[in-house]
Amino acid sequence: MGLFRALKTNARRALAGSWGRAIGIMLISVIPGVLINLLEYGIREVSGVSEFVNRSGTGNAFRAAANIAPASIAITLLVSLLVFFIMTPLQQGIIRWYYRRTGGERDGVTGIFHYFETAAGYFRALWLNFLIGLRMLLWTLLLTVPLVLLTGLLSVAGGAGRATRTFAMLLMFVWMVIACVVIVIVGLRYFLAPYLLAEHPDYKARAVIREGVKLVRGYKGSVFLFALSFILWYLPSLLAALLVLFIPFSDPFYLFQVTGLLLLLMLAQLGICFYLVPYQSASLAMYARYLIQTGESGGVDEYGDSTREYKPEIDRYLEAQASRAPAEEPPAPRPGGEETGGSGPEGEAPV
């Protein structure tokens, strides 16, 4: 059995008996975002401050950005802070729930609020995600600066020849591709950090990041391919995206049919998500556990050894759960039942 298949199989086995909880967690995680959006909408309606949108449909959006009201900026910052202070510990709690579930722990749905229970845990989750976000932002800015410079040079050289402009556009496209690849690689560096915090809750945020970068070294490509192996589950969304791209070029006569098909695809994706989100979350947590156990145990030469070492842990857990159920004792033979071969008392068949 290949590594990816083994990890996904173990993930499904780890979720056995907890699919309802996993779906409940998925639904609960959506509620804070919806409430925050409603709160922002209510504040803007009451205060009469609209968000920045170039509603006239004319003019330069960047020129209009200079006219954004300070009140609108303040509301946006307030909502962003609410999202960070509420959603970050909640998402970290969800990651912890799946990580512990792959280790055989049967936490209830309330386990996702673990980082709200103590001030130390709450601020540690915030600080870890803030440091990761800050690193990602700095890398993004570093990769964006050359693109901005290329854009500026292209605008200055407006009178340049067609060949020069074409070369500059090609160079910008190549740099965008390189920047996207680098951002993905940088993001994969911090893949293990949230799981390590769940594994070692007393570690400081910087130590968690350093340890995670060390343990994921040499596995970033494998983690990326593992995440990419779920892409077929998103086929309805991919088809819907293609439909959206072709809507402006479609015949108005078929626009209604295209819109209906788009709605069906999105509903299909929503239905798939009730299975996909818990399955993918558990699979990623299983891979994180595999990498952490492999790294902290000194490493292995072949993935099969580590996978076989992990699977008995799930087996022992399932066996322990089964052993807790009282075994049914077979009924004792009824006197005379075997000799006579007839019915026992009350008309029951002999044992």
UniProtKB/TrEMBL annotation:
The keyword Membrane applies. Pfam families: DUF975. InterPro entries: DUF975. The chain crosses the membrane at residues 21-44, 64-87, 136-161, 167-192, 223-247, 253-277. The keyword Chloroplast does not apply. Residues 321-351 are annotated as: Disordered. It comes from the Bacteria. Keywords: Membrane, Transmembrane, Transmembrane helix. This is DUF975 family protein.
